[in-house]
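INFO  loader      accepted 1 record
INFO  loader      residues=195
INFO  predictor   begin
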Amino acid sequence: MELSPLARERLAKIGAISPQERERLKRSGELDSVLSQYFKGELSSDDLWKRLKALREQAGEPITTEAQSKLVDTLRLQMGQEDFDQRRQALLAIETMKPDGKYSRLELVLNSIQTLRQKYAQLKEKTYQQLKSAVESQLRAVAQQAMRQGMKINMEGSVDANVKNSPQWKQFISQHDSASEEMFKGYIARLRELI
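INFO  predictor   done
INFO  writer      dumping C-alpha cells
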C-alpha cells in the first residue's frame, strides 16, 4: 500500500525533532533523573535544591515549574505521611528559587491538603471502629455457639472481613472517598495555579 503525499509529509514531520525540542527533552530527562534520586532517598531536599538550581541555570526558569508540576503529579490523598512530607519539602524548597515565589500561599494549600488527609484517615478509622464494635458483639455470640460444638473461629479476621464486606462500610467508603477526592482535586488545582 502506497502512502499519500500528505501522509508522507506528516510522517516526515513526526520524525523531525527541532533542536529546541531535543534540548527540552534532554532537560526533562535530567529533571526526571534528579527527582528519581530524590524519591529513592539518594538526595536530601537541600541536595535536590542545589541540583535543580544548577539545572535551572542551564535550562532557564521553566525547569522549576516543570519540577514542581511533576511533584504535584505524585501527590495522593492516601499516600504515606513520609512520602507526603518529602514532596512538601521539595515543593517548598523549589519555590524559594523563584524570584516571584508564592511560598506562603503554597504552604497554606499544602497545610490544607495535610489537614484533609488527616481528617480523611481519622473519619475512616472512627467509622471502622464503630462498625467493628457492632459486628464484634454479633460474632461473639456465634463464636461461643461454635466453641460449644468444638469449632474455633478467628474472631479478629472474621470481624475485619465482616466489617469490610458490610453494605454500611462499602457505602461509607464510596461516599467518603468521593467527597474527599473532590476536595483533594480542588487543592491540587490550586497548587497548579500557584506553581
